[in-house]
Amino acid sequence: MNRNIASLAAIAQKKERTIIGLMSGTSVDGLDIALCKISGSGHDTALTLKAFETISYSADFKAEIKSVFSKKSVDFEKLTLLNPWVALQQATMILEFLNKHGIDKSEVDLLASHGQTVYHAPKALHQQQKFGNATLQIGDGDHMAVATGIITISDFRQKHIAAGGEGAPLAVYGDYFIFSKKGEDRIMLNMGGIANFTFLPGSMDANQIFSTDTGPGNTMMDALMQQEFNRYYDEDAAVAKQGTVNKALLQALKQHSFFEQPFPKTTGPELFNLSYLEEAKQKAGSNDLNVYDTMATLNLFSAQTIAEAVQRTMKGNTSFVLYASGGGMHNPLLMQNIQQLLPGISIKHTSELGIHPDAKEAALFAVLANECLAGGEVEFGKTMKGIPSVTMGKISFPW
């Protein structure tokens, strides 16, 4: 037997695996690194978060990603060069993380790398009949495996698309295995650049699970902050709190076919960006609106589209508990708006479930890697749109 395959088989047979989950979101602010101890698989998965850190990206890294991010026309040579370069930059961060926490790389069984999304193209967005759903993440797994010396599982979204999904949201799988609780309906709301949620039925019936993107989370607010203030985000909603919501602009922002499409669905900054904002301002006749009022309006836009998606899919059920995670959780005005739009709903953070909210997505990719190696027996329902019953990830060996 090839020694790489033998190593993989030995890891799969362990009672407990040490897996580092990695997440680099559309905000491109830093690499989330979650060191997880995982035992079992499927319904029997048990995860303990042992260490977590977000290592901020340098200005150079951010600039390089933004040179190709979410653009229809890019320098193809640059994109080709960035694919291994991103992996090598992240590998250096991983090794720094291990050194800081006094962990030898030999103690880590697997890396679970999301990569860096540079373009997300569901068919509903590109609308080219001869092409299907597509998405592209860079940060090659082979380069990461060789640079770290750790077996790497990466590029999870391609199998999801190949099996009939849109490549997102993937959190539904880990949400179900880690956060489901018999007798309590739960909504796991993640607010990164794009907002999405998973409904977890208290019945534990996988066929009742639901997951979808809702529209923008932080992406438009972050982009405006970077353009107007050279800040990466609206810390404590300081800018938005100074503004007043412009109702005409709010209505114009919500006038897009995406919001009329049936659930589940996915989207990205390819749609919800500053160009989208400018078009909405023209429709609303609010081109001269100041940045404070614009930010207040964008904040409520994200909150309303999240709340309306939850209400439409829950169809009158108000007995659920909502657990929030992601960068948007730190925006007090966004959270306040969501609570006001969902009166009577208990809103908590995933920290109450034992997972730091900022670590949730990285940890869930560790769960996907665990399923790739040791699971894959849970049936999510063959007719469930957007949630194919597949394991995901491509395996890269360090030698």
Structure description:
This protein is an alpha/beta fold and 399 residues long. The chain folds into 2 domains: 3-168 and 358-396, Nucleotidyltransferase, domain 5 (2-Layer Sandwich), CATH 3.30.420; 171-353, 2-Layer Sandwich (Nucleotidyltransferase, domain 5), CATH 3.30.420. Helix content is 37%, strand content 21%. It contains 13 helices and 12 strands. The strands form 2 sheets. Strands 1, 2, 3, 4, 5, 6 and 12 form a 7-stranded mixed beta sheet that branches. It has a 5-stranded mixed beta sheet with strand order 9-8-7-10-11, with helices on both faces. A hairpin with a 5-residue loop joins strand 1 (16-24) and strand 2. Helix 11 packs across helix 12. The longest helix has 25 residues, at 76-100. The model has no long low-confidence stretch (mean pLDDT 95).
Order of helices and strands: HEEEHHEHEHEHHEEEHHHHEHEHE
Shape: globular
| CATH fold type of the largest domain | Nucleotidyltransferase, domain 5
Give the beta-strand count.
12
Contiguous low-pLDDT stretches (5 residues minimum) are none
Radius of gyration: 20 Å
Structural class by sheet pairing and helices? alpha/beta
The CATH first-level class of the largest domain comes to Alpha Beta
CATH architecture of the largest domain: 2-Layer Sandwich
The helix content, as a percent range, equals 25-40%
Termini separation comes to: 15 Å
Number of helices: 13
Q: Main beta sheet: strand number and arrangement? A: 7 strands, mixed
As a percent range, the share of strand residues is 15-25%
Number of domains in the coordinates? 2
The H-level CATH homologous superfamily of the largest domain, spelled out, is ATPase, nucleotide binding domain
Kindly report the average pLDDT value: 95
